[in-house]
Design goal:
Strand order of the largest sheet: 3-2-1-4-5-7-6
Largest sheet: 7 strands, mixed
Number of domains: 1
Number of helices: 9
Shape: globular
CATH class: Alpha Beta
Order of helices and strands: HHHEHEHEEHEHHHEE
Structural class: alpha/beta
Length: about 230
Amino acid sequence: MAEPLPTGTAKVAAVREMFDGIAGRYEILNTLMSLGMDHRWRRRCVDALAAPAGSTVLDLACGTGSLARQLRQSGLRPVGLDLSAGMLSHARTDAPLVLGDALAAPLRTGSFDGAVSGFALRNVADLGNLFAELARVVRPGGRVSLLDLGQPEQAVLRLGYRLWCRLVVPGLGAALSNGNAYRYLPASLAYLPSPGETTQLMRKAGFGAVEHELLSGGISQLYVATRHR
């Protein structure tokens, strides 16, 4: 029987330790395990933000800087925030980087024109608090574009995806990085509420015009919303 997933402060500590440990090969494994689709998903995430050139954008849980680089290529000014010092030490970006917890970000209120995140929603201790903190640091009228993994709706694709996550992902992780971490990452999808519940949490935090988009048949998903004025 699988061990229960950690919650609360235990989850924060476990996530920090895990990402510190896998930072060195995180990007290459993302690309291998997604068959290269992660690059397309990140481009879609930044395009959906629809931010004017020169906008200052928070890259929440920025990791090693993949989204920050995409933001820069799109003419935007990224600032990265991450809980893991290991991830930041391996970052390949010229963006300013801040070490900190997304639920208590050391950032000024209303200081960003928008925010993005890549595969971070399931790794925070409290999703409602995350959205509230995003609403605090993003100015009224600013937009957020939040990317994470999903669950395909089509039965055959869903079965193949589950087998890939159960067999291939941990195997690649064990061979190239940390098998335990890459067993946790697919299992962590259980933390995510349904799209309807997530949309309600975002609205409660102060976002409107919330849109939910499935990418690659639902393997990935994207939430886009606007901060209320």
